[in-house]
Amino acid sequence: MADKKFDIIVYGATSFVGQIITRYMHAQFADGSIRWAIAGRSHSKLQNVSDAIGLSGVEIIVADAADEDALRKICAQTSVVMSTVGPYALYGDILVKVCATTGTHYCDLTGEPQWIRKMQLRHEADAIKSGARIVHCCGFDSIPSDLGVHFLQRNALEQFGQTCARIDMRVVSMKGGASGGTIASMINMVKEAVSDADLRRELQDPYSLCPQNHQFSVTQPEVKIAYDTVAGGWIAPFIMAGINTRVVHRSNALSHNSYGVDFKYEEAVVTGQGSSGKRKAKAAHWGVNALMLGLAVPPIRWLLETFVLPKPGEGPSEKAQHEGMFDIVFFGSTARGETIQCRVTGDRDPGYGSTAKMLSQAAACLAKDVPDSVPGGFWTPATILGDMLIARLQAHAGLRFEKHA
Ligand SMILES: NC(=O)c1ccc[n+]([C@@H]2O[C@H](COP(=O)([O-])OP(=O)(O)OC[C@H]3O[C@@H](n4cnc5c(N)ncnc54)[C@H](OP(=O)(O)O)[C@@H]3O)[C@@H](O)[C@H]2O)c1
Asked: How many domains does the chain have?
């Protein structure tokens, strides 16, 4: 797509995370190696972002998420659109449709499995026909999980001659906060699930994002509050597991079941040792459950939205982003009982400082690294970007992928 005016358009440059992305793009690609522009629905807001960062020569493009013609004009000018306009289930449909039909590559930060499935069902045939490569989940959910599993399996194959039949992912440490946009996406998903029994069933299916002819039927492990001998500490369910596990299973399906048809995968948070670890595991679990229950009840949801949770446009301070980090360990075991451990770490808060770098590098990887021979369709980060993105994340985004001895 060398004939396009831009390599990447950052759609939603005014969002909380979009502004961090714009700042990062400005610093990373000042050498002109990526031709990029910013876009959103309000020229004045985009101009403010441009002025605050000191962009010069970076074009501003205006397009509302409901304006198909304007989105077509965006796609006509660029190889890749990276979007932070969310909740995606509310604002993302038309952009994905336009990208899929015009052969424009696309990546985003959605963590909304019900919306991804809807987009796959509606637009996969168009994307295959046009050559558009669509890659959802290019932020903290689900790049560390999807690429962490990919990295571990590659090492297992080299070391044991076979991939691991089971991987337990453990969040050992994580420091960061949530933004209004993330909360809005969570609230929208709870609202949709409350009024739709089919959706509630779909959200329970670990293979909901796999192609319809997938061959998986093995029951996936369920994380409970427990002392975990694998990680040597108390564990609780991880809030992002709902999306991450589904992306990992889709990667397995798209790679011709390279992790095995009976592959088992689960994710948990390690809360520590002894009675304090147990107490924290219970608090983490019941805290998330209480939030979800509260969001399902309209008056409580209103109170939480109005007085407690961050609003759209709000998120962790710059200091909190810089002081943030994540440290995740993957414990793999083969069917023969051989074991292997890999670690993925990041140097900023997972949801914003680090996510902004992950999405930007995913977009750059789509624009510059993926060979022309790769067909269009709905890919996952591991299946289309894989080792090329790992190299970029290690070189330019503060992530490390390491195999433990
Ligand atoms: N996967 C991850 O790890 C991860 C991490 C962070 C965020 N996220 C997701 O990323 C998304 C953005 O989060 P955020 O907190 O940065 O959101 P935010 O600050 O609330 O920003 C929302 C963005 O959507 C734009 N927008 C809303 N309606 C629009 C429309 N009709 N047309 C065009 N643009 C429209 C807003 O434009 P205006 O500024 O003009 O209002 C703004 O740029 C959310 O869906 C969130 O869940 C995911």
From this structure: 2
